[in-house]
Amino acid sequence: MADMTANGGAGRRSGRTPRAEYRAYFALIFAVALVPATIGWAAAMLRSGRRPETGPVASAWKDALVITPQIFGG
Question: Which of 16, 65, 19, 58 is nearest to 38 (CA)?
């Protein structure tokens, strides 16, 4: 039987993503999601004549919270 620990775990990932990288991706996704969220919010406001419950920033934030972990396999 082979000893799989001979290299001290070389090649294994720790399972944690560096925070700086995660935050950079989150910020990028948030900025990109903000444009369609604002357009959708404005269109909904024009159609109904009143402001939607969720604003464009909250909607884009929610989208970024969903998408970013998918990139990192979580």
Answer: 58
Residue 64 has pLDDT above 60, yes or no: yes
End-to-end Cα, the chain, rounded Å: 33
Condensed to tens digits (0 to 9), the pLDDT of residues 12-52 reads 556 665 888 999 999 999 999 999 999 999 999 999 999 88
- Output the six-digit token pair for 69: 């972990």
Q: How far apart are CA 16 and CA 10, in angstroms?
A: 16
> Domain boundaries in the chain?
19-71
Taking the CB of residue 64, how many other CB atoms lie within 10 A of it?
21
